[in-house]
Amino acid sequence: xxxxRKPLPIVTSSDRPFWEGARRxxxxxxxCLNCGTFYYPATHCVACNRPKMEWVRVSGKGSVHTFxxxxxxxxxxxxxxxxxxxxxxxxxxxxxxxxxxxxxxxxELFIEMPVEVVFDDVTDEVTLPRFRPTT
Length: 135
Fold this sequence. Notes:
Blueprint: H1 16-23, E1 28-32, E2 38-39, E3 53-57, E4 61-70, E5 84-91, E6 96-99, E7 114-121, E8 127-133
Antiparallel strand pairs: 1-2, 1-3, 4-5, 4-7, 5-6, 7-8
């Protein structure tokens, strides 16, 4: 049986600035220029319903909002990784980002654990933001 590769994100026109920032090791988020709300790409702000938004660099700091530890293989590409965590990270600026926490044991994870972004250069084209605990 050949090695199964992990699926990588498909970059679209609406999220290209996020992935280009990750390749530069910068965490990017969408921000409303009217009210300052950070959120995912949309045509209008989710808070004030105005259409003036832009991609901006954010701190990369946040905390674990919630997480799960996978012990079962749901896709053959992750067979060698179980158990592994998947976490929703609440960035200091407000939005949630789905990622993994690295640099600690799964048993050490806890809700509201302070974390900071680190970048995993998976290929020459794709860099994944992951998070590690901060002290």
